[in-house]
Amino acid sequence: MPDASDTAAVVREIHKAAGRGDAGRLRALLRRHPGLANDTLAPSGPTPLLTAAGYGRLACVTALLEAGSTVEAADNMHGTELHYAAMRGHAHCLPTLLAAGADVEAVNSQRRTPLGVAAHGGHAGCAGADVNAMGNCGETALSCAASWSAWGSEASLRVLIGAGADASDANARGETPLHRAAGSGNEAAARVLLAAGAAADAADRREG
């Protein structure tokens, strides 16, 4: 039986292979050490599957799932594999994760679904969750996308609206996505929202 230092070294190699996309090396390690498919480098840290999903290494995601890696193994911020992949725009990994049972409605420590983090990052291709779900501050994915002018938000807005997002849904302060776009100076996002039927005369609670 290997000692703790030997095991830690193998776990490091598994994570390294998962992050680099070396599926051949990863499969070889998992064949020799099948019980380490879910081991982390630190308490509450990412699993190899989270690492592979975060780097968009689809072949490694597949190898880990075949080796018994647990889907929905959240890190210390409660981010799942779908969050990791969606946050970084790795849409090609999502179907495999979803087929393995990943939950599109899972929320992280900020109460954001995978769709929410995708919209926040401007990754229009990573959709699939409740488009009107709110984060812990009462913001929807549409509001997040509207407020980030530098992150490709117009494309994300179009995807979210096409998926049924409410262009006039207000947050706890009465601010609509249009308010958020205007507040961040995002004129392109404002045009998309107006074209989708957002009310131009909606007042937030500070305006009465």
TrEMBL record:
ANK repeat windows: 44-76, 77-109, 173-205
UniProt cross-references to PROSITE patterns, sorted A to Z: ANK_REP_REGION (PS50297), ANK_REPEAT (PS50088)
Annotated keywords: ANK repeat, Repeat
TM regions (residue ranges): none
Pfam families: Ank_2
Superkingdom, taxonomy of origin: Eukaryota
Keyword Manganese on entry: no
Protein name in UniProt: Uncharacterized protein
The species this protein was found in: Chlorella variabilis
